[in-house]
Amino acid sequence: MKLSNVNNLLIIRLSSLGDILLTTPLIRSIKNKYPSITIDFIVREEFKDAVESNIYLDNVYVYYREKPNTDLVESLREKNYDMVVDLQNNFRSNRLRKNLSGMQVKFKKPDVSKFLLVHTKLNFLKDAKQIPERYAECLGENILDGSGLDFFIPDGINSSLEDDGKYIGFCPGAQHFTKKWPEEYFVELGNELNRLGYKVVLIGGDSDRLMCRKLQLRIENSIDLSNENELYKLAADMKKCKAIVCNDSGLMHLASAIQIPLIALFGSSVMEFGFTPYMAESIVLENDSLSCRPCSHVGKAECPEDHFYCMNKIKPEIVLENIMELIA
Q1: Quick one: which H or E segment has residue 41?
Q2: Are 30 and 37 in contact (CB under 8 A)?
Q3: Fewer beta carbons under 10 A from the terminal one: N or C of the chain?
Q4: Is residue 44 within a helix (H) or strand (E), and if so which, with residue range?
Q5: CB atoms within 10 A of CB 49
Q6: Where are the beta strands (DSSP E) in 126-281?
Q7: Edge-to-edge, what's the strand order for the sheet holding 243-247?
Q8: Is the domain of 200 the same as that of 317?
């Protein structure tokens, strides 16, 4: 079925923050090309802020992981969608999708290619497209409009930072150890930026709060604005920064969505997986001289080689040089 024949469409992407934000170019492009299509979205409760205020969506439904979703499924069935687009393609999304009518479309994950790259270093992903483009390919139309990610901050959400402050944002968190730039490097970089007249702002969600507190104690004049996953507030704080320094994380994609220049630090993950900043002013720093990268397509709790050269070789002076280039 062509999109021109679709009246209502459901997109399923339950998690996680970055993956959800990467759906937004497709949502916007469909709505702008076919304004009459009703576009609904289903997302897990803890990530609903990523799309709840998206002006291109008509309805956002919440999926609960820890309790039955019987009423939700019944409500979706009543909508009688012409097309259901499953961009998650896992056990939960498949089970949800199969309860619904309409044409079924699902994201094809390059699992075999990722497995080979991680475990044999055979790289069949050299020419792989970024994730938003792979999402769009599911629909069989060249529909993307060439612009970046979307994130909409509701009226009334304001930052406590000054408008003209020389702020550099640090997002030191990531889900896995091998995606985290060392704490000592953040401290060294932060204190050097302070000496140059910049003020470091520490940004993160609930799982990052301990690290942000520790960094705030060691980086002179830094400000800890981490919070309990208040995504709109994090975005408002980011917008006051001249640049963001972050790991390969959901907050990297949030910075991309609100168009803040950013330095992205890639450790165990590689650009071929498709999750680099999309259509954003950015510099990706990685140690591409290592034969052990990537050691995982999601990240690990420790370095399998015990040297962690993928991050340890990205020195603070290298990052500082690139920050100055980015904001010059």
Answers
A1: strand 38-44
A2: yes
A3: C
A4: strand 38-44
A5: 20
A6: 167-171, 199-202, 223-224, 243-247, 262-266
A7: 223-224, 199-202, 167-171, 243-247, 262-266, 282-286
A8: yes
The candidate with the shortest Cα–Cα distance to 48, out of 73, 16, 75, 25, is 16
Task: Residue 26: give its domain's CATH number.
Answer: 3.40.50.2000
Q: Is 268:295 a contact under the CB 8 Å cutoff?
A: yes
Residue 145 lies in a domain: no
| Same domain, residue pair 90 and 184 | no
Say whether pTM exceeds 0.90: yes
Could you read off the pLDDT tens digit of each residue along the chain, which spans 328 residues? 899 999 999 999 999 999 999 999 999 999 999 999 999 999 999 999 999 999 999 999 999 988 899 999 999 999 999 999 999 999 999 999 999 999 999 999 999 999 999 999 999 999 999 999 999 999 988 899 999 999 999 999 999 999 989 999 999 999 999 999 999 999 999 999 999 999 999 999 999 999 999 999 999 999 999 999 999 999 999 999 999 999 999 999 999 999 999 999 999 999 999 999 999 999 999 999 999 999 999 999 999 999 999 999 999 999 999 999 999 8
Q: Which amino acid, one-letter code, is at 9?
A: L
Structural domains counted in the chain = 2
- Assess whether 95 and 171 both reside in one domain: no
Q: What six digits make up the tokens of 288?
A: 């591409």
What would you measure as the largest C-alpha separation in the chain, in angstroms? Answer: 61
Gyration radius from the chain CA atoms:
20
183 and 49 assigned to the same domain: no
CA distances from residue 317 to 62, 188, 192 in whole angstroms, order as listed: 44, 9, 9
